[in-house]
Design goal:
It is found in: Mitochondrion. Keywords: Methyltransferase, Mitochondrion, Transferase, Transit peptide. One of its GO terms (molecular function) is protein-arginine omega-N symmetric methyltransferase activity. It catalyses: L-arginyl-[protein] + 2 S-adenosyl-L-methionine = N(omega),N(omega)'-dimethyl-L-arginyl-[protein] + 2 S-adenosyl-L-homocysteine + 2 H(+). By secondary structure, this protein is of the alpha/beta class. It contains 13 helices and 18 strands. The chain has a domain of about 210 residues: 3-Layer(aba) Sandwich (Rossmann fold). Helix content is about 35%, strand content about 25%. The strands form three sheets. Strands 2, 3, 4, 5, 6, 7, 12, 16, 17 and 18 form a ten-stranded mixed β-sheet that branches. Strands 1, 8, 9, 10 and 11 form a five-stranded antiparallel β-sheet that branches. Strands 14-13-15 form a three-stranded antiparallel β-sheet. Helix 4 crosses helix 5 and helix 8 packs across helix 9. The protein is globular. Bound molecules: S-adenosylmethionine. The site of S-adenosylmethionine has 19 residues, from helix 3. The site of S-adenosylmethionine (SAM) has 19 residues, from helix 3.
Length: about 425
């Protein structure tokens, strides 16, 4: 059962409107030549060094500078490969911004609001959040820090968020600009390069893009699933099971492990540790939202192309590769040092309804055309329906343990039963 909705005070004061609903068109112009380059690279690498782990395969396919899936295309929207919640209208970004404002105010509204977004896509979520933050006048000493691997997407983000931006491929802060609200925005490839200081960190559909190793229980214990060239047709790839234990089995599988399938993401583990350390030592709040599970047995490695499932080994570089996020693992890692409080994971449906998304929807509908209403309602249903994104997407939040007393008295909104 959902708890009754406590609408945050901030939400009641949200009066402005974005009120357009579009599924923006994609410029899916990655040439076949670039996909062929990725395929050639993978086959050659396998021929030289033997079958590759799925983590290595994902890394090459998604982020290789020469034709990696994320590097040179806009994959969002109806004409792309998938649609994300921020792209479904303004409601999602507004709820996220209000959530941060509410929690930030409980921590005493620390000055210099450092806003960090991991994997900002088209910059839509950031744009919606900045609009809300500006409305509540909290941007005076704010800065925005975007972690983005893709030069093309960073350019789209800059176009959306800034008047102008400056790109320097070789710099650590590889793009700089100033938002329409006058907030400095910096782009990074590594989380570690983002300046220290109290931060709010949002990661929406980011962790699912990080490489995973796939392990399978066999008679001889856990063995890793690898990618190999198909000996019967050298133009094709196939999955094989490693004969021996690979390092990830030795390092990451506990002796009491019993699940049939495991998906292990050392990159996610490293990143959640970096985020947690920042929050513990410099203060901050993190919100991680993604599709995922709470440690159940999973075989979720898959590819999406044009909104349909696609074989992950066919035409590498032409489709998104993804795996469900293991929230139990992220939470365990975050809690390991004892310096972090973690809430969730809760379903997206619970989070958004408890945040009062319905209230905001009704408010927006009062000043909408019939067509805009349809768009808003479509987005609302997609995000909250149990058979759509409502249950599959989950939210996890992290706070410094030093604020335990405050949060015991005023628990984070959206994380109730
Ligand atoms: C699935 S999209 C999500 C976009 C956005 N958060 C949204 O919800 O619309 C993943 C984003 O993460 C970026 N990304 C993927 N892997 C990355 C990595 N290893 N380092 C930095 N950015 C990465 C992609 O370029 C893209 O912007």
């Amino acid at each position: 059962m959902l708890r009754s909705i406590q609408v945050p005070l901030y939400l009641r004061r949200l009066e402005f409107v974005r009120l357009y609903y579009t599924v923006r068109s994609s410029s899916d112009n990655l040439s076949k030549v670039q996909n062929d380059e990725i395929s050639k690279h993978i086959s050659q690498r396998i021929k030289i060094a033997g079958p590759m782990t799925i983590a290595e395969y994902m890394k090459v396919v998604l982020t290789n500078p020469n034709g990696g899936y994320y590097m040179h295309r806009d994959m969002f929207g109806e004409e792309g490969d998938f649609v994300t919640s921020p792209e479904l209208g303004q409601l999602f970004g507004e709820m996220i911004a209000i959530w941060f404002l509410n929690e930030w105010s409980k921590l005493g509204s620390p000055k210099h609001l450092q806003i960090i977004e991991l994997g900002p896509g088209r910059g839509t979520l950031c744009q919606d959040m900045l609009r809300v933050f500006q409305h509540f006048r909290v941007l005076d000493t704010a800065s925005v820090h975007l972690l983005e691997v893709s030069p093309l997407l960073s350019n789209l983000q800059a176009k959306r968020l800034c008047m102008t931006s400056h790109y320097d491929e070789n710099a650590v802060v590889y793009r700089k600009g100033t938002s329409h609200q006058g907030v400095p925005i910096s782009w990074y490839r590594r989380f570690a390069d983002i300046p220290k200081g109290f931060s709010i960190v949002i990661a929406h559909e980011f962790f699912d893009a990080l490489p995973i190793h796939k392990l399978q229980k066999t008679e001889n214990g856990y063995r890793e699933v690898l990618v190999d060239v198909d000996p019967s047709d050298e133009t094709k790839l196939r999955f094989i099971i490693a004969r021996e234990e690979t390092p990830v089995v030795k390092l990451f599988v506990n002796s009491d492990e019993n699940r049939n399938h495991l998906e292990i993401s050392p990159e996610s583990v490293a990143l959640i540790n970096l985020i947690s350390q920042r929050i513990e030592y410099d203060g901050g709040i993190a919100l991680i939202a993604d599709y995922g599970h709470n440690g159940e047995s999973k075989d979720s490695f898959r590819a999406f192309k044009k909104h349909h499932l696609h074989h992950p080994l066919v035409d590498p570089g032409s489709a998104d590769l993804t795996a469900d996020v293991d929230f139990l693992c992220l939470k365990k890692e975050a809690l390991k040092s004892g310096g972090i409080l973690a809430y969730g994971p809760v379903s997206q449906r619970n989070f958004l309804l408890q945040m009062g998304i319905k209230y905001r929807l009704e408010k927006l509908e009062e000043s909408c055309s019939e067509e805009q209403k349809k768009g808003l309602l479509y987005g609302f249903n997609m995000m909250t329906d149990t058979d759509k994104m409502g249950l599959r997407f989950k939210f996890l939040s992290l706070f410094p343990a030093t604020v335990e007393k405050i949060l015991n008295k005023y628990p984070p909104i959206g994380f109730g039963e």
